[in-house]
Amino acid sequence: MRCVSVDQTSSTITLHYARDGTSNLRLRIRKIEYFIPLGLILKCFTNASGSEHVSDEELYNRLSRGDDFIGSRVELELRKASERGWKTTKQCLEFLGSQFRDRLLFLPPHATDEQAGEFFLDRNVFIHLDDAAAKLDCLIEMSRKLYAVVRGQAGADDPDALHSHELLMGGHLYLQLAKEIMEESLLSTKTELEQVFNKKGFARSAGLQNLGSRLTSTIQRYGNVGRKLFSVLATGSIHFSRSGLDMSQTAGFSIIADKLNRLRYLSHFQSVHRGTFFAEMKTTIGRKLLPEAWGFLCPVHTPDGAPCGLLNHLAQLASPVPQPQYPTDIAIKHLCLLLTKWGMVPVQTFGGSGIIPPADYLPVLVDGRVVGHASQDTAEHIAKRLGTVKARLLKQILKRHFPYYKSKDLDFPTARVLAKVALERETTLQSVDLETKAVCPTMEVVFLPRLEDSRMAPYAGLFLLTEPARLVRPVIQVQTGLVELIGPLQQTFLKIAVSRYEVDPARDTHVEIDPASSMLSVVASLTPFSDFNQSPRNMYQCQMGKQR
């Protein structure tokens, strides 16, 4: 799981299953990987009631839910944790703090091992969540997914599929870099001043007189944030980053916007590169165009040669979500209230009764936060209602900003629509209607049912995504005739007709606005009679059209 905090700082959490039935949590701190036993991490968190210790019985029941296969693994984890002396939450936190104290930046030197353990969990484990109870719920659901994959009840996620990706936008990269550069500047300044004060023969009276000049020279030496950011823009390299920003590459983050002609200049702002790491791979698995990329990435507009399949371009109607739609916890609570009203059983973190849901109930997650559970029929009903509300809200916004808008003729870019949605976010949150306050038109509603042949099926659940940098595109709902914005993972489980003449109301849920504009990029759609050409010829024309 790639966890992203409010300031776009990311941290990837991975669970590994060993042959002896135990599991380990893997994370990376400043480019060094660490493996931590799952039983230790489970016993570090507290529940929603605020008790200092979560009993082994509660952990066993919440993880197993009556499943003997999962129960035997959880029992093994808890037994090994007890044998090592990790019996209470305090003991587990003290052990973590003693092991990772030297790797924690900005940890006060007078902090105890227990406080160091809490600091470690807050900064490195599920950083997108702000309380221990929510982190415990997320870890439990993540562990259940791991056990489902191990026993063949769910398929592993495809890391090369588009629905597993988000775009790295320029503003998010600069924000992460600026934060890290300022942190390094503060640490360097602190270290140098400590060395000066602790130096032998330092006269306090004379030293305090020169403190101002010493502090100014130190800040000038280490505090030039703009110089490093300018270097990133000029070279595209972040080799100076000590954390690596949780990325697989340190170069290739900027390109020169050549303005040979308008098509070439336009293509720079619609291009999406997989990464220089995949350009060095000997296999072609990262270059394949998978079916779920339909409508989001153009299958034609990619260069031939070394960057083929790695440098892609967005389709005409596809666009990334510019900013988060839920800036406060109040908006998420409104959404949880709405879902509870529609039949979801809330978890403890949102005031639920703490009842352990049945084994056949599906988890409901909002941006990686477990907010409740629901039966499969209830989850499907919630997904359909959310889709209807999304389309209705989008129609209201379009009517206000585009008076001549018709639901069957979307003749403007999706990026302009998303800009108007973002402008009305604050007004929406102040609305009286609960549905209007809780639902955003750019929300991606993904209902993954539990299938009979589940060996290759994804882990079942209801997932609601509202974070920025996700790709969305418009389609038309068959029943209502309204435009709905969908995402890559959502469209995999929808039945979308290509044209209005092929719509079967008993089968199809959505229909494309225009097949050509939905599939091709701006440059690829300018090739005349492209459907009569060989596919390589269309690719060549996209490159030749950007030349002089």
Structure description:
This protein has three domains: 150 residues, RNA polymerase Rpb2, domain 2 (Dna-directed Rna Polymerase Ii 140kd Polypeptide, Chain: B, domain 3, Alpha-Beta Complex); 121 residues, no CATH class; 200 residues, Hypothetical Protein Ta0175, Chain: A, domain 2 (Alpha-Beta Complex), CATH 3.90.1070. 40% of the residues lie in helices and 13% in strands. Strands 8, 14, 15, 16 and 17 form a five-stranded mixed β-sheet that branches. The protein has a five-stranded mixed β-sheet with strand order 9-11-10-13-12, sandwiched between helices. A three-stranded antiparallel β-sheet has the order 3-4-5. α7 crosses α10. It is globular.
Give a brief rundown of this model.
This protein has 548 residues and is an alpha+beta fold. The chain is 40% helix and 13% strand.
